[in-house]
TrEMBL record:
Belongs to the transaldolase family. Type 2 subfamily. The gene is tal. NCBIfam families: PRK03343.1, tal_mycobact. This is Transaldolase. PANTHER family: TRANSALDOLASE. GO terms for molecular function: transaldolase activity. The active site is at K140. Signal peptide: none annotated. It is an enzyme of class 2 (transferase). Transaldolase is important for the balance of metabolites in the pentose-phosphate pathway. Pathway: Carbohydrate degradation; pentose phosphate pathway; D-glyceraldehyde 3-phosphate and beta-D-fructose 6-phosphate from D-ribose 5-phosphate and D-xylulose 5-phosphate (non-oxidative stage): step 2/3.
Length: 378
């Protein structure tokens, strides 16, 4: 039997795991995903670390040691997270070497508390980059108004960046501009750009979660059955349409003379990364967002359950450029219905930052409780 996860490689898509869990790293479960399923990257975020560190007892020994050393709550979190990220980076290092730096990356995210602080974000990015000290590290920076200049500066300094929490195509253009201008700055100064890696993380399923609810609200507000049917037909369609149109923008931005000049000096494209591809609505196919966004020069970060489901019954086809005309029409129809693209994509980014902040709060509270129980300092 063929493995659909391995078939994705033939169409130019890389699979990264949207999870970091120490027990999986130590048990060999992560390594088996690399060896058997072709996994070639991993990403962490505050929500992932909050879940892992509060439910996985393999962290307890190191946590107790750090508490005994008098580390404060943030120092404990960072020590635990950096240990995990180094373990992942080392297990993915053969992939990084084999692909000449194209894959084999692990991402760690800056504190969501810094989402509106450019200088603070840069300070943390530099600290993570130098402390973890792995060439196959990417540091995640939210693509907020304060994050965009931090993304550009970090890339200009030669730090690999995962630009995350992208929901709108305009925000995506800003991320690409930051990437290209950073490479141009380095190139002008005679610095190497061949080994700088970056991805642009476009969040997918969360779009449908919000838009479907907004469409339901609209349907409840009208009595015209035909109009209700027109609105219902848009449900479950907007997230994929949005990502497919973003991919069209990716092709445009990385095919012109501006990038070609950088490519001649060894630059790589900044690949679109599809994040949040697990299906949230049980009425939809459980691998919908994976099957419909397959294409070259893309990355899909899948949660463990999504990887299992796709391995079992995923269907692989070159789908990323299907129904582009229909995608444009769907977004136009949404606008006509009074659901404004700029508004809901901004809401999603704001909510994304808040979710990560909430996860940080919960994680820090858990660590703080353990630290206090052993008499540690604040």
């Amino acid at each position: 039997m063929t493995n659909p996860l391995l078939e994705l490689k033939a169409l130019g898509q890389s699979v990264w795991l949207d999870d970091i869990d120490r027990s999986h790293l130590l048990s060999g479960q992560f390594a088996s995903l690399v060896d058997e399923d072709g996994l070639c990257g991993a990403t962490g975020n505050p929500t992932i670390f909050e879940h892992s560190m509060t439910h996985d007892t393999t962290y307890d020994e190191q946590m107790q040691q750090l508490i005994a050393e008098g580390k404060n709550t943030q120092e404990i979190y960072e020590a635990l997270a950096m240990t995990d990220v180094r373990l992942v980076a080392d297990q993915l290092r053969p992939v990084y070497e084999l692909t000449d730096g194209q894959d084999g990356f692990v991402s760690i995210e800056v504190s969501p508390y810094l989402a509106a602080d450019t200088a603070g974000t840069l300070t943390e990015v530099r600290r993570f980059w130098h402390a973890i000290a792995r060439p196959n590290l990417m540091v995640k920076i939210p693509s907020t108004p304060a994050g965009i200049p931090a993304i550009r500066q970090a890339l200009a300094e030669g730090i690999n960046i995962n630009s995350t929490l992208i929901f709108s195509i305009e925000n995506y253009r800003q991320v690409v501009e930051a990437y290209l201008s950073a490479l141009e700055e380095r190139s002008t100064q005679g610095q190497d750009i061949r080994h700088i890696a970056s991805v642009a993380s476009f969040f997918v399923s969360r779009v449908d979660v919000l838009v479907d609810q907004l469409l339901t609200d609209q349907m409840n507000a009208v009595s015209d059955l035909v109009r209700q049917q027109q609105l219902r037909a848009l449900q479950g369609k907007i997230a994929i349409a949005n990502a497919r149109l973003a991919y069209q923008e990716f092709k445009r931005l990385f095919s012109g003379p501006r990038f070609q000049a950088l490519k001649q000096r060894g630059a790589r494209v900044q690949r679109p990364l599809w994040a949040s591809t697990s299906t949230k609505n049980p009425a939809y196919h459980d691998v919908l967002y994976v099957e419909e966004l397959i294409g070259p020069n893309t990355v899909d970060t899948m949660a463990p359950t999504t990887i299992e489901h796709f391995r079992e019954h995923g269907r692989v086809r070159f789908s990323i450029e299907d129904q582009i005309t229909e995608a444009k029409a769907a977004l136009a129809a949404l606008e006509e219905a009074g659901i404004h693209y700029d508004q809901f994509t901004q809401q999603l980014q704001d909510e994304g930052v808040q979710r990560f902040s909430d996860s940080f709060n919960q994680l820090f509270q858990c660590i703080d409780n353990k630290r206090k129980a052993l008499g540690g300092r604040q």
